[in-house]
């Protein structure tokens, strides 16, 4: 959605965004590589069922300030992974996607995943691989305007991408993607035929977590704000979410929501240096269908699920070094995130009673880790 420069709706949303984003409501996800591909919307749209190996390569521009040039690797085709881009003609916007399916031919639940600020289709890959092993598919989306292309402009461009307009575009990306996958599933189109339309979930990291909250029904307290809710989702998981100074709108989210954060999960481009402020999301959600995994020693990168390739670039632009503790605890954190989120999806999307039993007391928690349900 594009507003004219002097449109009152745009002014109202940007005014609220100045608080909701730069003051901590929108955290940044820094899982992108230091060498950036061209903007996603410049890539030609691929067919809805094209495999990853058929996706058109995207040339990389020069590195952002401070980055070390490196060759762009050629992606290796992965079994069960399909990739392409959809064209939303109403917004003249191309939305890259990557579908990761479990082995076999059985019908599957599916989770839509939204990357963090400056991220790409690689965001959440580690989690998606674990979910696929448990029989759950993942549809990764890439959001032009807040994806890895912003790194070309350095820190100023990164902060500029933290806007209400980009959040709106992301929400509409998700709504459009759901429309497309449901249509393809109904038509029995290739791999989409396996998707169970009654078993859809939504997840995302950082700015993707903000997208998840918006799609789940967060009220931004502006009459002119567009409706970003997507009603087809049964449950949600927000990696590194944040509530900002106006958390009240979160109270309207009644569908199941899992929050994941930790003691060092600060805002990479903001003032918050630890994760305590992120607890407000779980605390504000209405009682009944919410849960939270708190990991001692986990930082923002711990929840990205995209590996260490280029991770922390935003922090380095600000001269911040990563604390060594999350690296030492990486295997522990990853194992817990995989097991808890997998059981969350299996319970909430597939009504797996064994998963529900495991979630009553997850195994592997350290003394200072926390698992909350309320």
List its salient traits.
374 residues, nine-stranded mixed sheet, 18% strand, disordered N terminus
Largest sheet: 9 strands, mixed
Sheet-strand content, in percent, reads 15-25%
| Shape by Cα distribution | globular
Query: How many helices in DSSP terms?
Result: 10
What do you see in this structure?
- The chain has helices spanning 8-20, 125-133, 154-160, 164-186, 207-216, 279-284, 313-317, 324-328, 330-350, 353-360, and strands spanning 81-88, 93-100, 108-114, 136-141, 195-205, 233-239, 257-264, 290-299, 370-373.
- The longest helix has 23 residues, at 164-186.
- 29% of the residues lie in helices and 18% in strands.
- The protein contains ten helices and nine strands.
- Helix 2 (125-133) packs across helix 9, helix 4 (164-186) packs across helix 5 (207-216) and helix 9 (330-350) crosses helix 10 (353-360).
- Strand 1 (81-88) and strand 2 (93-100) form a beta hairpin.
- It is of the alpha/beta class.
- A nine-stranded mixed β-sheet has the order 1-2-4-3-5-6-7-8-9, with helices on both faces.
- The two termini are 36 Å apart.
List the topology elements.
Elements: H1 8-20, E1 81-88, E2 93-100, E3 108-114, H2 125-133, E4 136-141, H3 154-160, H4 164-186, E5 195-205, H5 207-216, E6 233-239, E7 257-264, H6 279-284, E8 290-299, H7 313-317, H8 324-328, H9 330-350, H10 353-360, E9 370-373
Parallel strand pairs: 3-4, 3-5, 5-6, 6-7, 7-8
Antiparallel strand pairs: 1-2, 2-4, 8-9
